[in-house]
């Protein structure tokens, strides 16, 4: 489940970037990038602006849902610390007693 959500999240993120870059900035004409007559025929009488706005909104909602889902799935998995595993496997022995050298 985690892998599926991660792959879906990356795909939706890349799609969201693409859709945002396709939108025209303030004052820019869509006709310059897509062709004025072709864009009206392809996206209907309202033009590409409304279609791309709805597409961006939908992609953003899906992106947020996958983000929240990944956070929930990640928090529910049992994760042990590596440090506790090392402490359990290596028993600490008391320091060895110092042997006294015979005095001469």
Protein architecture, described:
The structure is a single chain. The chain has 104 residues and is mostly helical. Helix content is 67%, strand content 0%. It has five helices and no strands. The chain has helices at 2-22, 31-34, 36-43, 48-76, 82-89. Helix 1 (2-22) packs antiparallel against helix 4 (48-76). The longest helix has 29 residues, at 48-76. The chain starts with a helix and ends in a 15-residue tail after the last helix. The model has no long low-confidence stretch (mean pLDDT 76).
**Oligomeric state, counting identical vs distinct chains:** single chain
Helix proportion range: 55-70%
Instruction: Tell me the number of strands.
Output: 0
Rg over alpha carbons = 30 Å
Largest sheet: none
Q: List low-pLDDT spans.
A: none
Q: Count of helices?
A: 5
- Give helix and strand order, one letter per element, not per position: HHHHH
Distance between the termini: 74 Å
